[in-house]
Specification:
The chain is an alpha/beta fold. It has helices at 14-32, 45-51, 57-65, 88-98, 122-125, 164-179, 195-208, 221-230, 242-256, 294-306, 311-326, 342-355; strands at residues 2-10, 35-40, 68-73, 103-108, 130-135, 145-150, 153-158, 184-189, 215-220, 237-240, 263-267, 273-277. It has two domains: 1-102 and 263-358, Isopropylmalate Dehydrogenase (3-Layer(aba) Sandwich); 119-256, Isopropylmalate Dehydrogenase (3-Layer(aba) Sandwich). The protein is globular.
């Protein structure tokens, strides 16, 4: 198979973890006889420094022509002025919008060997295996916003808006994913307060009629946040709007024990997707060679599965990661006794991919 993949190392630890992701992609290509064209482009803070734009035209053009995109992270203290007119995050938000990637998928399944890394008791983690499906191009992050001044001083507003079409497509995707899992969808909203949530709930009920084999329940976001850490095994597929999904998916990371372990995929109607670990740029450890690359490597597995349709290859990457973790090749975020560096983990995963039986 031939495919073109754009690599966006970004900022902070992004270049380090994407470097390991690249090595895994190359190992898969070698092991299974594929031809992957890899091109690196700038996004985020580094793009501001080099081009004055967090999403340069050349980067956008390359992504629009690619079969898939792998991202490290964007942002850092150098660009961390909330009043700045140009910020790294703007590049990522615009890229998602330009590629029409409306769905963010974040699978969360703790590794048995790493239950000690989670602040939750092992019995609470038993059976936890969930998928958060977050709407990505609507809601507060993309609604009308502004500031004004009156007799009470400065005033600011952000608008949450959703159309029936936007809700239907993300909910329908959640139901399709649930068909391949445990056939349960939990739609999370704030329908007791928000008009957008009332529309969301009504549309979710309508879409559920298309999937008679999948059960649907509704939860308010505040009670869902509590249930996520008290009884995570109760969830299968969670679907929710942009801001709620942003918050809940980060909360769900505590189940795995580290932000460095979790991958994500941002998808649209076609096969092209944007894949990235859920962690940020971690500037405090950038350049030290200790960042956990597992989230990025598992994002590569999602890339192979969802954008390239290579299920066997994706499974080989996931098996190599599981074997690496079982061998206790862990970075420091997973415990005080862990001594492996970013490159060590990458070496172990690559070696296992190359040694796997096709």
């Amino acid at each position: 198979m031939k495919a073109n993949i754009v690599l966006l190392p970004g900022d902070g630890v992004g270049p380090e973890v994407v470097g390991e992701g690249r090595r895994v992609i190359e190992a898969v290509a070698e092991r299974f006889g594929h031809e992957f064209g890899l091109v690196e482009c700038d996004l985020g803070g580094i793009a501001i420094d080099r081009a004055g734009d967090p999403l340069p035209a050349a980067t956008l053009e390359a992504c629009l022509e690619a079969d898939a995109v792998l991202l490290g992270a964007v942002g850092g203290p150098r660009w961390d002025d909330p009043e700045a007119m140009v910020r790294p995050e703007q590049g990522l938000l615009r890229l998602r919008k330009e590629l029409d990637l409306y769905a963010n998928l974040r699978p969360v399944r703790p590794f048995p060997q790493l239950v000690h890394a989670s602040p939750l008791r092992p019995e609470r983690l038993a059976g936890a295996d969930l998928m958060v499906v977050r709407e990505l191009t609507g809601g507060l992050y993309f609604g009308e916003r502004g500031r004004s001044r009156d007799q009470d001083g400065e005033r600011a507003f952000d608008t949450m808006a959703y159309s029936e079409k936007e809700i239907a497509r993300i909910v329908r995707l959640a139901f399709r994913l649930a068909l391949g899992r445990r056939k349960r969808v939990t739609s999370i909203d704030k329908a007791n307060v928000l008009e957008t949530s009332r529309l969301w709930r009504r549309v979710a009920v309508q879409i559920s009629r298309e999937f008679p084999d999948v059960s649907l329940d509704h939860q308010l976001v505040d009670s869902a946040a509590m249930r996520l850490v008290t009884h995570p095994a109760a969830f299968d597929v969670i679907v929710t709007e942009n801001m709620f999904g942003d918050i809940l998916s980060d909360e769900a990371s505590v189940l795995a024990g580290s932000l460095g372990l979790l991958p994500s995929a941002s998808l649209g109607e076609g096969t092209r997707g944007l894949y990235e670990p859920i962690h940020g740029s971690a500037p405090d450890i950038a350049g030290k060679g200790i960042a956990n690359p597992v989230g990025t490597i598992l994002s590569v597995a999602m890339l192979l599965r969802h954008s390239l349709g290579l299920e066997r290859e994706a499974g080989s990457v996931e098996a190599a990661v599981a074997a690496t973790i079982e061998s206790r090749i862990w970075t420091r975020d997973l415990g005080p006794d862990a001594t492996a560096g970013t490159r060590d983990v990458g070496d172990a995963v690559v070696a296992r991919i190359r040694a796997a039986v096709a």
